[in-house]
Amino acid sequence: MVNTLAPETTERAPHPTRAAAGALGGRGRARRRQAVVAYLFLAPALLFFAVFLALPLGFALLLSMSRWTGFDLGDIDPVGLDNFTGLFADGSTFLTPILTNTLLFALGTVALALAGSLLVATCIDKLRFQGLWRTLYFLPIVTTVVAVGNVWKYMYEPGGLVNGVLNALGLGSVAFLQDPDTALPAVVVVQAWASVGSAILVLTAGLKSIPGSYYEAAALDGAGPGTVFLRITLPLLRPALLFVCVTQFLTGLQSFALIIVMTKGGPGDATDVAALEMYRQAFSHGDWGTASAAAFVLFTVVLAITLAQLWIFRRKGEDA
Amino acid sequence: MNRRRFPWLSYLLVATGAVLTVVPFLDMVMTSFKGPGEAGTLPYRFLPRAFDPSNYRAAVDQLDLPLLFRNSVVATALITGSVLLTSSLAGYALAKLRFPGRDFVFRLVLSTMMFPPFLFFVPHFLILVHWPLAGGNDLLGRGGAGLTVSIVALAMPFLVNGFGIFLTRQFMIAIPDEVLEAARIDGAGEFAVWWRIVVPQTKPVVVTLGLLTFVDAWNEYIWALLVSTADPDVMTLPVGIQLLQDHVDPTRTMPVVMAGLVLSVLPVLILFLLLQKHYIRGVMLSGLK
């Protein structure tokens, strides 16, 4: 989970210098003791972040500029930026198709999930038993990716449910996951299917925060449902839409568990994405340097796209 | 909005979507009851010819479900327990104690949420392999398999969660300082204040965070897959089921795989249905998955 967009709170802690100002006599000793106690409370978390956050980041950065076979830490061989240039060299598959696949996968997922959740959320808002509907749409989110991936993989088989439906409609079977042209869209559908529930949740909350008086005023002015949706619902839903967009895009750019389960990147490299390539370079080919370099390139892409989205939505906000 | 007319179109849309959401689950359950040669063959049939429970017995035997369940339960319990404890401790310090560097530490905790997990798979694995004085390693982390052959390896990278600390701190800020001050004047130490006064008041956040963590830990696949390749004895449910699915003829074993999936999904689904309000609140607070 990436939570950079978690709702910000504005409560401010009392300023620490006030504690320092009273650092005389008994009060000072009490303050000092509280500081020691505070760091004792924080010690497990800080220790963890040192070993599992700071150290790995440094290690990954070092590896991204080294060649290493993975056994003796003394054998790490610095190679400068070779791993990075190797990723973008002629004949490298990293830019196309892998990075392209990654973007298409994320883009497709966001488009499908956004369209689906917007449609369902605006409709659910008018219905009874909203809790029941939400529960149903939420089931995929609490289900392990191994279950989701295997059930859908099986459903895409020639003898599976999807082709069963196609055949019943008089259409021919499609080898969804075996055909390089359909494999990526097929996986995108599953990723969108699995994430639409949480998008509905966020959009429903956004819809509920729009004051009913706006709709009443629009109705008095004789606005049709289309105008109401375009002029009131959509603009006021912008923060929720931004939230869904950014977080879904982040997830789409990073996730590869579903692809490992369903296609392992195949057929060929039709569904190979950057995070999966990183994983394979490291754990199948033992090329830790290239894997680490790929991870940092992907991180940069993720960061750039997120910032771009925030910037676009903010600019649109000023124009309106 | 037009609430007077019965919203036929909305009902139709929402119901269609709900059917699309639920049908894969039903297909999973139906397939798990299909007999030999019945799954994956043409023409497709949704219902099994006879509800045959023998796949569930086969899943328990072929998959070694007891071992997989044990590993999944241990890893999930370790992660959930540790995240709740460390979040509560750190959250209390950040919300209710005054000390130099507090703003810095808080910002540090927030920044830990920024880094995507894929940055860490490689270094985390290497760090565990070269963990000093474990699994036959010497002091410099050489010579053995390190912590990767231990069941704690499944839990190690998830024991502390920046979002958990953030969530707990936000909740604890609302606890009035006067209550804590009164306890301190009565001679309670900070640890006693935390344990006797703060922890009992943070039950809602414990349930929410615990549930989110539990579901994530139970469903975790990539890291467990890595650790299981180093030591098959610590294989978890998702990894074990995927392994069976990858290595055996799918038309024959598909019902067994589905039976295993049903059994592995069931605990989380039941927990979610019982406590969904808390879970949904957690997802609202944490952002998307």
UniProtKB/TrEMBL annotation, chain A:
Transmembrane segments: 36-63, 103-124, 136-156, 183-207, 240-262, 293-313
PROSITE patterns linked to this entry: ABC_TM1
Main location: membrane
SUPFAM superfamilies membership: MetI-like
Key word Transmembrane helix present: yes
ABC transmembrane type-1 domain span: 99-309
Location of the protein in the cell: Cell membrane
Sequence segments annotated as region (Disordered): 1-25
Pfam family name, one: BPD_transp_1
Keyword Protein biosynthesis: no
Membrane-topology descriptor: Multi-pass membrane protein
Keywords: Cell membrane, Membrane, Transmembrane, Transmembrane helix, Transport
Highest taxon in the source lineage: Bacteria
Family, similarity comment: Belongs to the binding-protein-dependent transport system permease family.
Protein name per the record: Sugar ABC transporter permease
From TrEMBL, chain B:
UniProt main location, coarse: membrane
Annotated TM spans: 7-26, 73-95, 104-127, 147-167, 205-226, 256-275
Membrane topology: Multi-pass membrane protein
Compartments where found: Cell membrane
Domain of life: Bacteria
Keyword annotations of the record: Cell membrane, Membrane, Transmembrane, Transmembrane helix, Transport
InterPro entries named among the record's database cross-references: MetI-like, MetI-like_sf
Residue span(s) of domain ABC transmembrane type-1: 69-275
Family as reported in the entry's similarity comment: Belongs to the binding-protein-dependent transport system permease family.
Protein name: Carbohydrate ABC transporter permease
